[in-house]
Amino acid sequence: MRHSRALAVTLAASAVSFPVLLGPAGVPAAARARACTPGSGPDLRGEDLADADDLPRNLRCADLTGATLNGADLTHRDLTGAILRDASLQGATLSLAHADGADLRGADFTGADLGQFRAKRVKLRGALLIGVYAEQAEFPRSDFTGAILSGAVLTQADLTGSTFASADLTKATMGQVKARGADFTRATMRGTRLGQAHLERAVFTSADLNRAVLTQASLDGADLKGANVNGATFGQARDLDLTGSRGTPADVPADALSPSPTEADRTPEAAQEAANRAIANDPVRTAAGLLLVVLSGIGLGLTLLFWGLSHRRRKRELGAFENERIAVMDDLARFGDEINTVDAEMKSGRIDGAPGDWRAALDAYEAARHVLTVARTPYELQGAASAVQHGRASLHRVRTLLSDHGGQR
Question: Which of 157, 165, 261, 279 is close enough to 265 for a disulfide, judged by CB 3.0 to 4.6 Å?
């Protein structure tokens, strides 16, 4: 018993001596740091929380699927493990908030403030981050596949090991970002500014870097095979290797590695002539030369066969993409007609002013139209479909308000 009392006194003294170990309401920091199951927190699915004053301070593992948080102030909020799939956070403030492991797929962050946002290993597939401010934000090991980040400001952001496959980063500002090992395969990065960026071992396979600016970027081990670097600026970039890239850069450092074909690679005629000379000058190799010609013919035939199969598959994929794009265009046109109908009702005097949801619907229409303009893959089309979905939800709330107003009259 005496030992137990002594232990209790010792623990109490430790708590007084080291208060930093205790969090709010005396909860140990280690207990608060334990992971929670996504969706096990507050159930706020589909809720309109844009102007809610009673939004819970702690949103760890909350389920906010499809919720509306346009313009909401989420500064310093704990969103660790939260589910925000298809949620609308247009113009929201999430600076200094934490969202490690959160599911943000299809969410709309258009115009949001994500300055110093902390979000490790988050899912942002198909999310809309058009024009977001995310300076010094942390997104390491996160998935941005098919996301739209055109015009985003990501200066000094941590994107280490993140995936941006087929994402749209047109004219994004990404100066001094940490993107070591990041995957930008097939990403659209036209006019993207990556000055002084850390891009060691980054993958840009088949990415579009037309007129991108990578001045003083660190590119040790970066893979630019198949990338379009036409008009791109690589002034003073370190360890640049343009082997396998396409187009002519506007500026490259003197020590950059670029493809330099041998004489035999420049023209088929030169290659054949060199082979003929070798055979003629060395009779011992005549038989080997003839065998090489036969094998080359067989190889050419197989190459043409596989090219034909690949070409037909590509045509099928393009056809499927075009059909999907037309379907999204038709849906966007219908959405535009719905907006015109509601606009006419508002102008008829049935309601004074335009609610916030009306502006959100218009912004969603413009965002979807922009995505359709730049979309090149099915992943990118998902961004347009998601924008239309969010816009329709906002327009539905406007219609409800119109109906209620008409009934009161």
Answer: 261
- Quote the CA–CA distance of 125 and 174 in Å, as a whole number: 19
pLDDT tens, position by position, 296-309? 778 777 777 777 77
Structure letter (DSSP) for residue 157: -
State the amino acid at position 56 in one-letter form: P
Residue range 115-142, pLDDT digits in tens: 999 999 999 999 999 999 999 999 999 9
Dihedral angle, C-alpha 375, 369, 397, 83, nearest 10 °: 20
Rounded Cα gap, residues 334 and 332, in angstroms: 5
How far apart are alpha carbons 318 and 407 in whole angstroms? 50
Extract the tokens encoding 207: 């990415």
Please list, in sequence order, all residues whose beta carbon lies within 8 angstroms of the beta carbon of residue 249, skipping any fewer than 6 positions away: 229, 230, 231, 232, 233, 234, 242
Average pLDDT, the chain: 81
C-beta separation of 177 from 197 below 8 A: yes
Look up residue 170 and give its two tokens. Answer: 């047109």
pLDDT band at 194 (very low <50, low <70, confident <90, very high): very high
4's CB contacts (< 8 A; 6+ apart) are: none
Calpha distance 177→153 (Å, rounded)? 10
Nearest residue to 44 (alpha-carbon basis) of 5, 77, 8, 11: 77
Least Cα distance to 82 among 100, 62, 55 occurs for 62
State CA 14 to chain mean position distance.
46
Answer yes or no: are the C-beta atoms of 136 and 117 closer than 8 Å. no
Strands (E), 24-144: none
- Alpha-carbon dihedral sign for residues 6, 8, 13, 14: positive
What are the Cα distances from residue 351, in Å, to 37, 80, 92, 324, 394?
44, 40, 26, 37, 16
DSSP secondary structure string, 240-272? -B-TT-BS--SB--TT-B-----HHHH-HHHHH
pLDDT digits (tens, 9 = 90+) for 255-314: 777 654 443 344 455 556 555 655 555 555 556 667 777 777 787 777 777 777 766 776
Q: Where are the alpha helices (DSSP H) in 122-167?
A: none
Question: What sign for the dihedral angle of Cα 37, 42, 45, 50?
Answer: negative
Residues ≥6 apart with Cβ < 8 Å to 326: none
> In terms of pLDDT, which residue wins out, 221 or 393?
221
Phi–psi pair at 83, nearest 5 degrees: -110, 115
pLDDT for 343 equals 84
